[in-house]
Specification:
Layout lengths: L17 E5 L14 H10 L4 E3 L5 E3 L2 E7 L2 E6 L14 H12 L14 E8 L2 E6 L6 H4 L7 H5 L14 E8 L2 E6 L5 E6 L3 H10 L4 E3 L4 H8 L4 E16 L9 H10 L2 H8 L4 E3 L22 H10 L7 E8 L2 H15 L3 E8 L1 H10 L4 E6 L7 H6 L17 H12 L3 H18 L2 E14 L2 E2 L16 E2 L2
Parallel strand pairs: 1-10, 1-11, 14-15, 14-16
Antiparallel strand pairs: 2-3, 4-5, 5-7, 6-7, 8-9, 9-10, 11-17, 12-16, 12-17, 13-17, 18-19
Helix pairs in contact: 7-9, 13-14
Length: 484
């Protein structure tokens, strides 16, 4: 979906700075170390990658096309586009090798090293060709090469890409004069952009209304979006998203480790009411981590219906009388997330589950989740493209810091299905294994799926051409214009 201004575009682009409001600042501009959403989305603008993804999240060529020469051998051939770094030097296969070698170097402690650990060797064939040799066959391998390519000479020189990036993407770095203000320039026309961090959503919208910002994406509560839709000087664009919101459980806890308790919680939640009345319809119910139209998704999975009577019956069968079951539910102190958690607390209370809701600043909350200091929590997975997320989130050996199995879910069945899906050569069998895995997770409920949140872009009049991506990227800035 694209945002079309009601004004008439002029022939020449305006070079006035366009200001994009962020809820949180990027942590790093080095794609080898980026894990937060803001960093990943900015890095997509600064760097080019070997692969990209289509609308069903299948890997497609970006910098390079590829051939599988053997089960453990892939050859990538660089094309013509995106081959010039912003300092004028040419991007070659040696830069690809240096980028991935540095990620695999344990002394650099890249958080992406584990997902690329199957790479046994990288060899440069010529300036346009690079070969990857794997320790074992991996049908998912091409999709893993989505990290921005850095220049080899600058890596060797120890350049601090985190604050002084150099890529070959559609935007180049200008300056980062303070943590809350980042300046980039679009290469095709010289359009200047500022990314300004404004944490409070009310202040962010007020700045947009006053013309101190030109556009924002997401992180606005529904009532502010409704206000913007009726504002004479603002335009709103909505698009379907894939960000997956869920309730997570500590599977080693004596209470939340009980399947009947987790199942009762699933039946106690009225997702449709929350989506309609609280999210203003800007979401769709989820039944698995991957959306049903993902190539590895399962469109046949049913939703857990809202059935409070069944929830009470499950709790009674588990030996809990009304009010006897007490749970601590942790969330961040973001006001809208606290509001959602409060509604979940009320819905669980209606079936006899007493919920102690505790909200924390992000650092404390996330630290507790990674350390396993919780019974129940809510979070969202953002921008998921690859089904290897199942290994990262649910494999027995992926407990932090080795992965994101924060609930300590341990299942030989899930491990076997993950291993099988990642090693089978036949694409149809691979999809079947992933669907079996999702049905199994739907039954076991290490997560209670809640919803996939839509993306919302709000801009002042005169902003034209922005397109929302399903993964929430900022790639629409490549075409956005300020018209007169």
């Amino acid at each position: 979906m694209a945002l079309i201004s009601q004004l008439t575009a002029c022939g020449e682009p305006s070079h006035a700075t366009l200001r994009f409001g962020l809820a949180s600042a990027p942590v790093t501009l080095d794609p080898r170390f980026a894990t937060d959403a803001a960093s990943a989305r900015i890095d997509q603008l600064l760097y080019r990658h070997l692969v990209d993804f289509d609308q069903h999240f299948q890997p497609v060529p970006d910098l390079a096309s590829w051939r599988q020469l053997a089960p453990d051998h892939y050859r990538f051939t660089l094309g013509a586009a995106g081959r010039q770094f912003h300092d004028g030097s040419r991007l070659t296969a040696a830069d690809v090798k240096a980028t991935y070698d540095s990620i695999l170097d344990p002394t650099h402690a890249s958080p992406h090293r584990e997902t690329l650990a199957m790479i046994r060797d990288i060899r440069v064939v010529n300036d346009d060709t690079v070969d990857f040799y794997l320790s074992a066959p991996d049908p998912l391998f091409p999709g893993r090469l989505e990290i921005g390519v850095l220049p080899a000479k600058q890596i060797a020189a120890g350049r601090a890409f985190n604050h002084d990036p150099l890529g070959s993407g559609p935007f180049r770095f200008v300056s980062w004069p303070e943590p809350g203000r980042l300046e980039l320039k679009r290469l095709r026309d010289g359009q200047a952009f500022e990314f300004l961090t404004v944490r409070d959503p009310t202040v962010r919208l007020l700045k947009l209304e006053r013309g101190e910002l030109d556009m924002v994406q997401n992180d606005l509560p529904p009532e502010m979006i409704r206000y913007a839709e009726h504002h004479a000087n603002l335009e709103v664009l909505r698009g379907r998203g894939t960000n997956f919101t869920y309730l997570g459980f500590n599977m080693q806890d004596p209470v939340t480790g009980q399947p009947a308790v987790r199942e009762a919680i699933a039946f106690a939640l009225d997702r449709q009411a929350i989506i309609h009345y609280v999210l203003d319809g800007a979401a769709r119910p989820a039944n698995a981590l991957l959306p049903p139209d993902h190539w590895a998704g399962d469109p046949t999975l049913p939703e857990y219906p809202y059935d409070p009577a069944k929830a009470r019956a499950l709790l009674k069968a588990a030996g809990y009388r009304p009010g006897e079951l007490h749970l601590v539910y942790k969330t961040s102190n973001d006001p809208f997330r606290v509001r959602l958690a409060t509604i979940i607390q009320q819905q669980l209370g209606a079936v006899g589950i007493d919920v102690d809701l505790r909200s924390y600043d992000w650092g404390t909350f996330y630290g507790d989740i990674k350390a396993g200091r919780f019974q129940m929590y809510s979070l969202s997975w953002v921008g998921i493209k690859m089904p290897d997320i199942f290994r990262y989130a649910f494999y027995s050996r992926s407990v932090p810091p080795a992965g994101a199995n924060r609930g300590r879910f341990a299942s030989t069945v899930a491990d076997h299905l993950i291993d099988a899906a990642e090693t089978v050569a036949d694409p149809e069998q691979q999809v079947d294994y992933y669907r079996q895995l999702q049905r199994y997770l739907w039954q076991q409920l290490p997560y209670v799926p809640l919803w996939y949140e839509d993306h919302v872009f709000v801009a002042r009049h005169g902003i034209s051409g922005y397109t929302l991506a399903r993964d929430g990227s900022y790639n629409g800035l490549e075409q956005v214009e300020l018209v007169k």
